[in-house]
Specification:
By secondary structure, the chain is an alpha+beta fold. The chain contains seven helices and nine strands, in the order αβββββββββαααααα. The strands form two sheets. Strands 1-2-3-6-7-8-9 form a seven-stranded antiparallel sheet, with no helix packed on it.
């Protein structure tokens, strides 16, 4: 019994210690910044100076640095961006750097699941490499910090700050292209999806069915094989008392749904055709 009690105490002690929470020496940080119309995210850890000399000592010059601590520092872009005349595709990348006194090499690495530097560095995994300028600060930054700053509609700076050093890298975002595409899309008038959404809402909310009928016809003119639009057209026609049009639309929807392999729409159309006495 004594041995059993000792074992129980030992197990209990392990369980209690496993639940202890303590601050991390390099706490994690998350940043999300909209630049123009592009969302940029950052996940990284923030080591502190703690009286140490950082660049040229703790972080040697001329060697690949994980750019933070712990797991990879990961940056994400919702759109393709441009850095020093090069295109970096939308997605997430680990940031690795090679600090030097006057400039840093910044590398966007495709693999983001490393703890620190990759065990085997692969140059083919570097999506883009650029050179960041270095500026000395008059005061010290105790905790490693990454800022997205100098915001404009068309870009921003990615700033790495620690000790008395700032390394900054400019990037551009496709705000003008996205805005012009949006303007062209809206100014050219609503598309089939817009007409369908308006018609569906008017039908389902018991609003003006004549407007819904006009809109659903415009939607199906552009998408004659969209079985979900044809299905809605048949229902609007039926509620307007247009039985022949309802049956014709349901038959087209049925044929398109069968071709697409959508069993739900096949059944719904068959049920409606039976209800409307279609031959």
């Amino acid at each position: 019994m004594k041995k059993l009690l000792q074992l129980f105490i030992l197990i209990l002690g392990i369980s209690v210690s496993a639940q202890i929470q303590a601050p991390q020496p390099s706490p994690s940080a998350k940043v999300e910044q909209v630049v123009g119309l592009t969302t940029v995210t950052l996940d990284y850890s923030r080591p502190a100076m703690r009286g140490r000399t950082i660049f040229g000592d703790l972080v040697p010059f001329g060697e690949i640095w994980r750019t933070g601590a712990n797991e990879n520092t990961v940056i994400g872009f919702s759109d393709d961006v441009e850095i020093q005349g090069q295109t970096l595709k939308a997605g997430k990348y680990a940031i690795y750097t090679i600090p030097n006194k006057d400039s840093w090499d910044v590398m966007f690495y495709k693999s983001t699941n490393n703890w620190g530097n990759p065990q085997n560095w692969d140059d083919n995994m570097v999506a883009l490499k650029a050179k960041a300028e270095v500026v000395k600060m008059p005061t010290e930054m105790q905790s490693f910090t990454i800022l997205i700053d100098e915001l404009t509609n068309d870009g921003a700076n990615l700033n790495f700050l620690w000790e008395n050093t700032v390394a900054y890298l400019q990037f551009s975002v496709p705000t003008d292209a996205k805005t012009m595409a949006s303007i062209d899309r809206v100014m050219s008038g609503p598309g089939a999806g817009d007409f369908y959404a308006a018609a569906a809402y008017y039908h389902d909310a018991d609003k003006d069915l004549n407007k819904a009928w006009d809109w659903i016809n415009k939607a199906t003119e552009s998408n004659p094989n969209a079985y979900w639009m044809l299905r809605k057209k048949s229902l609007i026609a039926a509620d307007l008392g247009k039985k022949d049009e309802a049956i014709a639309a349901a038959k087209k929807s049925l044929a398109a749904a069968e071709k697409a392999g959508n069993k739900d729409y096949v059944k719904m159309n068959k049920d409606s055709l039976a209800e409307w006495g279609a031959k």
